[in-house]
Automatic annotation (TrEMBL):
Family: Belongs to the DNA2/NAM7 helicase family.
Residue intervals of the DNA2/NAM7 helicase helicase domain: 718-777
GO molecular function: 5'-3' DNA helicase activity; ATP binding; hydrolase activity
Record keywords: ATP-binding, Coiled coil, Helicase, Hydrolase, Nucleotide-binding
Species of provenance: Fusobacterium nucleatum CTI-6
Record's protein name: DNA2/NAM7 helicase-like C-terminal domain-containing protein
Coiled coil: 480-514, 554-612
DNA2/NAM7 helicase-like C-terminal domain location: 847-1015
């Protein structure tokens, strides 16, 4: 079994052994119970419940629990574990449904696999055998459930006793098995939504994990690379890479479309946007490290805008609204045909997802928010609903979102949950409505497709031409700048060259003198030789020649003449070389003299560049900074000016790109409004999602649904869903059949929860922060080790360093963010932590909250650009401080210290009675966060008792009190971190201080004021809390 398969099987079994708990809900009194409310009923009081309701108005789901997890671990022979918060918790056991006719609803029985496996002690068996035993158990119980024709209280008790007996827990002590019924009502005629109808936490991931584990994933597939990324020689660290950042931020790498805003992204935002959108880079796995307040949503908006422009370009090139017609074998002729969406468009559909339902829905609601794109906040008026009645299916958007707040267009919508889908279905064509008769909300004013193409193409070419010219002029600018620098150095160069010439002239003179001297000596030697030879008689010359004799004096002269000739040859050669060098230096001087003449021309070109591309003072300042690359990128990690700048982000270019985004939406709108095939697909989608039987085979239905969904994703470019909805909402999709998946808050997402969506995606963009909220893993570490040993995960060499802690695949805190960060080709570093492209400019929290977070989590890398209040404002907390309150905790795993809770109550009372602050009126006034659930539970009781006459007290407690997981992505003006614990629970305090995450999240929820309440003697010595105290003290002294 390869590494990826072993990891998948490990996750699959971890998911199987996740305790099933009742969702965090407010139980209602019987008198106020209505549809979708939940009633908790003791076993001996079920006869008082609404079970015997006779009007058949509701179906009833009956759940049973709760059993102590510590007992289950004992039964499963799992090593005992110490729990830092509470006693290990309780688990839900089983549930089933009774329909309006008081009969068992088939296939509705479900049992906690976690409970079953541990009670039966079958954890050591292989996965398939475990699943088989669970399946057989369910089948046998269903036979008994069906045996009752008419469910009443006695029958419910009988079947419950039978199930408990089969599990061999029917005689357990009340301290181990509480025996409580949970009852939930929902309308009988309402189609079931498994996410909403069930009040206990279901298993949302097993089906997808099983499918993926059986799939033959290629080594280089997107999912394989995320699960177990291999070393890539092309991987590069970018946050201090001047050359890379200078290149990636050039106009040629900027997207041609821009989200409507007059503001530029920061440097690292721009780098991330350009990497994601540039054709040359654009990896299929990209991750962004986005601490709080660093503009993750802003970054995503730019990526979305670019994707929409790319869609529009494909549509413009198609130049037709006709789609490929595909016939099915249904006997219902009206539904025989569906239409194929071009593959290029499918790949550009966007799905945003997260573990956190509110996070994904907030993105869907934030994107179309009209108040953010009014003329005053953008570079055009093209998205201002006060000036344009329709921007992009605006009325349809209002039909989904309502008018609070108002929306500018149907850019996004929540998907996944049934209630969300229903809102979308309401804007789609009705069953009997003819395709040509459905015009969305346009009425008679259907946009002209050909005209929209023409407008788009003209604007597209204009943006491309501007970008191309801008980029080439930047390159020319730097060439000219280099030339000017050379010219400015030319005077010194000319002087140096002239000095060299003078030196050569001197050398020439010396050589010439030497030559003349040698010539005269040579002449003398020749004359001497000639004189000697002439002194011999004719006969003497003949005799000497015949005898081979030579006059010694002549021999000596010959030798001297030969040496002199060689010396003269060398002197002549040196004379030529020096003369050539002298001529060459004269030429260089001439070139430099000539270049000085074009200096003015080059300077004019430089000035023209600034004038052409700066339409205001901000542009000019930006261009001046960008043009000095050496200073712009000096000390880049801590250079505030550089980090908050977007290189080359000038207003005119941004305006053109914003206009192109608007034209792109108009073209897509016209394409959809004029396409018969799109309307047909949307109608089919409505029928399929409404549960209509259209006569398709299983395979046909799957194929039809996929094309129809892609049609919806064309109409609504961004759809959001939680991971929990993926297996059901996208069950028809296989590997790589969805487009771009964006995962938000990925630092708190377990890898196994994201597998289903990533498996189906073509590309993924993972956004989050591993230094904020960690994933919630309710499987105990001892149980994880037992599963890991089955799959030999201890033999995997891959490890992950997060804030100095070493993680592996068995670490409960391992997130999908970390896996993506290590698979990302482009990464940065915070201390020793490898992260995705790091965003470092923070705009949420004032000091000292920012300072605490920056010190304990971000290696002082962050740059704070949050603006302080212009005038004094009255907040719940008057100052930022560590409030020392000692006391005794409740004990037995409950870390609440009553005196600390009383301090919070005193602060709230002071606000209401003396400072005219109605704390409960606005949830943004105050959050109280604790590391421990037990502290929050007890605090809620005390606050509700202290303020029982406050109308909104229950709502406020539910919204504003919680652990860090509750407040991820949220913010309030004041935040109190309530620590709890005493000297008897030091280990629990040490647990909370083993990483900076808890304190980091709490501090960064606070925009204006932050206080910590706890025992200073206990907490003030612990990691990170000691730092926080120092920062707070220093801040208060300044």
């Amino acid at each position: 079994m390869n590494k990826v398969k072993r990891i998948l099987n490990f996750w699959k079994e971890v998911n199987l052994l996740t305790p099933v708990t009742v969702k965090s809900i407010a139980f209602k009194n019987q008198e106020s119970l209505s549809a979708k409310d939940v009633l908790k009923v003791p076993y001996n009081r079920i006869e008082d419940s609404l079970l015997l309701n006779n009007d058949k108005k509701y179906e009833i789901e009956i759940g049973f629990g709760d059993i102590k997890n510590t007992y289950l671990y004992e039964k499963g022979n799992i090593e005992k574990e110490d729990f830092v918060d509470g006693d290990g918790g309780e688990s839900f056991i089983f549930a089933f449904k009774i329909d309006g006719d008081k009969k068992y609803k088939e296939d509705s029985f479900t049992i906690s696999k976690f409970v079953f496996i541990l009670l039966k002690n079958i954890i050591s068996k292989n996965y398939d055998d475990i699943e088989y035993e669970i399946k057989k158990f369910i089948e046998n119980i269903e036979i008994d459930l069906k045996s009752y024709e008419n469910y009443n209280v006695e029958n419910v008790k009988k079947i419950t006793s039978l199930i408990l007996k089969e599990l061999n827990i029917d005689n357990l002590d009340e301290k181990i098995l509480k025996k409580s019924f949970y009852l939930k009502l929902f309308s009988s005629n309402e189609e079931e939504d498994s996410n909403e109808s069930s009040f206990f936490q279901m298993d949302f991931y097993t089906k997808d994990l099983e499918i993926i584990a059986k799939t033959n994933l290629k080594d280089n597939s997107l999912l394989s690379n995320i699960i177990y990324s291999k070393t890539n020689k092309n991987r590069q660290k970018i946050d201090d890479n001047k050359e890379f950042l200078a290149e990636i931020t050039l106009p040629k790498n900027m997207p041609v479309g821009k989200w409507p805003s007059k503001y530029n992204p920061s440097l690292m935002q721009a780098a991330a946007i350009n990497i994601c959108t540039s054709k040359e880079y654009s990896p299929n796995i990209f991750s962004v490290n986005g601490p709080p307040g660093t503009g993750k949503t802003t970054l995503l908006k730019e990526i979305i805008a670019d994707t929409i422009v790319k869609k529009a370009k494909i549509i413009a090139d198609l130049n037709s609204t006709d789609l490929e017609n595909i016939k099915t074998n249904t006997t219902i002729s009206y539904y025989c045909n569906y239409y194929k969406i071009p593959d290029e468009l499918k790949k550009l559909g966007i799905i945003v997802s997260s573990n956190n339902n509110s996070a994904v829905e907030n993105i869907s609601k934030d994107l179309p928010k009209a108040e953010d794109v009014l003329s005053k906040d953008t570079l055009t008026n093209l998205f201002d609903i006060n000036e344009h009645e329709n921007i992009y299916f605006t009325k349809d958007s209002e039909n989904i979102f309502g008018d609070n707040p108002r929306t500018w267009g149907l850019i996004s919508a929540p998907y996944g949950r049934k209630a969300n889908i229903q809102k979308i279905l309401d804007i789609l064509p009705e069953k009997k409505q003819k395709n040509e008769g459905f015009n969305f909300s346009f009425g008679e004013n259907i946009p002209d497709f050909k005209e929209a193409i023409s407008v788009f193409k003209e604007k597209y070419e204009k943006v491309l031409k501007y970008r191309e010219n801008f980029n080439s002029n930047i390159e020319k600018f730097f060439r000219n700048k280099d030339k000017i620098a050379e010219i400015n150095n030319s005077s010194d160069q000319i002087s140096n060259l002239k000095n060299k010439i003078e030196y050569l002239i001197e050398e020439l003179k010396k050589l010439q003198d030497s030559k003349e001297y040698k010539d005269s000596i040579l002449k003398q030697k020749r004359e001497q030789k000639s004189n000697i030879e002439n002194s011999y008689s004719f006969f003497t010359k003949i005799a000497n020649k015949l005898a081979g004799e030579k006059n010694p004096k002549i021999l000596e002269l010959n030798k001297d003449i030969e040496i002199l000739n060689e010396e003269l040859i060398n002197i002549n050669k040196d004379l030529r070389n020096i003369q050539n060098d002298k001529d060459e230096l004269h030429k260089k001087i001439q070139v430099l003299e000539n270049s000085k003449k074009i200096l003015k021309e080059l300077e004019e070109e430089i000035n023209m560049f600034f004038k052409t591309y700066s339409s205001n003072e901000n542009d000019l300042k930006l261009l001046e900074r960008c043009s000095d690359l050496e200073n712009f990128y000096s000390d880049i990690i801590s250079n505030e000016k550089t980090q908050e700048s977007c290189p080359w982000g000038v207003e005119e270019f941004n305006r053109l790109r914003e206009e192109l985004f608007a034209c792109s939406l108009s073209l897509i709108e016209a394409y959809i409004a004029n396409s018969r095939g799109i309307k047909a697909n949307l109608k089919l989608l409505k029928l399929l999602l409404s549960g209509e039987n259209l006569g398709y085979s299983v395979e046909e239905r799957k194929n039809v649904f996929k094309e129809c969904f892609h049609t919806l994703n064309l109409l609504i470019p961004v759809l959001s869903t939680t991971f929990a909805s993926v297996s059901r909402a996208f069950k028809d999709f296989e590997e790589n059949e969805l487009g771009i998946v964006i995962i938000d808050e990925a630092g708190q997402a377990t890898p196994l929860s994201a597998m289903g969506l990533l498996y189906r995606s073509n590309r993924c963009i993972i956004v989050g922060d591993p230094l904020q909220v960690e994933p919630v893993m309710t499987v105990t570490s001892t149980l994880i080790r037992a599963i890991a040993n089955k799959y030999e995960l201890n033999k995997l060499e891959k490890e992950f360093n997060i804030a100095g802690k070493i993680f592996n695949y068995t670490s409960p805190s391992l997130s999908i963010q970390t896996l993506a960060d290590y698979a990302n080709l482009y990464y940065g570093k915070i201390g020793e932590t490898e992260v995705g492209c790091p965003l470092v400019v923070h705009r949420r929290c004032l000091s000292p909250m920012f300072d605490i977070s920056n010190k304990i989590s971000y290696d002082d890398r962050m740059i704070n650009k949050c603006m302080p209040d212009k005038k004094p404002i009255n907040y719940v907390l008057e100052k930022n401080e560590f409030i020392d309150v000692k006391g005794q905790e409740v004990g037995n795993g409950d870390h609440y210290v009553k005196k600390q809770g009383e301090k919070i109550i005193k602060i709230i009372k002071d606000c209401i009675e003396n400072r005219e602050i109605d704390v409960f009126e606005n949830s943004k006034n105050l959050y109280v966060i604790s590391p421990f659930t037990s502290v929050i539970n007890e605090l809620k009781k005390d606050i509700k008792e202290a303020f029982k006459n406050e109308v909104k007290i229950n709502e406020w407690c539910n919204n504003c009190l919680g652990t860090v997981h509750k407040f991820q992505g949220k913010e309030a003006n004041s935040v109190i971190l309530l620590l709890g614990c005493d000297n008897n629970s030091k280990s629990s305090a040490q647990w909370a201080a083993q990483a900076a995450n808890i304190l980091n999240v709490a501090a960064t929820r606070a925009k204006k004021r932050f206080a910590i309440i706890g025992d200073l003697e206990l907490w003030g010595k612990l990691n990170f809390f000691k730092d926080a105290k120092e920062v707070l003290d220093k801040f208060n002294k300044e």
